[in-house]
Specification:
Low-confidence stretches: none
Largest sheet: 5 strands, mixed
Structural class: alpha/beta
Number of helices: 5
Number of strands: 8
Shape: globular
Helix content: 25-40%
Radius of gyration: 18 Å
Mean pLDDT: 86
Distance between the termini: 44 Å
């Protein structure tokens, strides 16, 4: 359930809560950045929470993880990813992992970076697919994330930087591209599951 702050007649500071949705709370600063089409870590985490509740909840047998931006960043920046096992979700039964990738390299800078892209790890196929709307901007960061996820999974992953990813026409839509691509891929996966379920139903003839 989403709840909005009572802002009538009130002047909110940047860190004041503006909108809550289950486990995620957007601040006024998060919402203000949307006016320039830039999405903060929190905005993307909000979207992932929404997709989990509205899309993945319909896929009862899915084992998909939408990793939050903060966790993806921590994974890239940590020399030994195995030290993060207790902080990350249990991937033992996971089939796919979605990671928002940011080009920030300063661990002391909150909400840093200038570009978002999406890494989809297909654990079952041993492949990670990189969707970048401003190629090849985040190739290095995505490749690093793929390598470290592979270490956590205990299996090598083949990294594919997809050259046919839709490309943005300005300098600020990257986060929007990540969110739309994430939803598109999840809806495509949901359609496949529905088709498989239909094919498994016994014939009435």
């Amino acid at each position: 359930m989403a709840t909005a702050a009572n802002i009538r007649g009130a002047k909110l500071s940047p860190d004041d809560p503006y909108l809550s949705y289950h486990d995620i709370r957007l601040t006024k600063e998060d919402v203000d950045t949307l006016k320039d089409d830039w999405l903060t870590d929190n905005c993307i985490a909000f979207w992932e929470e929404y997709l989990e509740r509205e899309n993945l909840s319909r896929c009862k047998n899915s084992h998909i993880v939408l990793l939050r931006p903060s966790m993806s960043f921590m994974l890239i920046q940590t020399p030994d990813p195995l030290t993060l096992r207790d902080a990350l979700p249990d991937f033992s039964k996971t089939t796919h992992i979605f990671l928002p990738i940011n080009d920030c390299r300063n661990v002391e800078l909150a909400e840093g970076g200038t570009h978002w892209s999406l890494l989809l790890v297909s654990v079952v196929d041993g492949v990670s697919f990189h969707y970048d709307s401003l190629q090849p901007a985040n190739r290095s960061e995505a490749n690093m994330a793929s390598h470290k996820i592979g270490q956590l999974l205990g299996k090598p992953l083949r990294f594919q930087d997809l050259s046919d990813s839709p490309q943005q026409e300005n300098s600020s839509d990257c986060g929007v591209f990540v969110c739309i691509q994430m939803r598109h891929l999840l809806e495509k996966y949901e359609s496949i599951l529905e088709l498989e379920a239909a094919l498994q139903k016994p014939s009435k003839d």
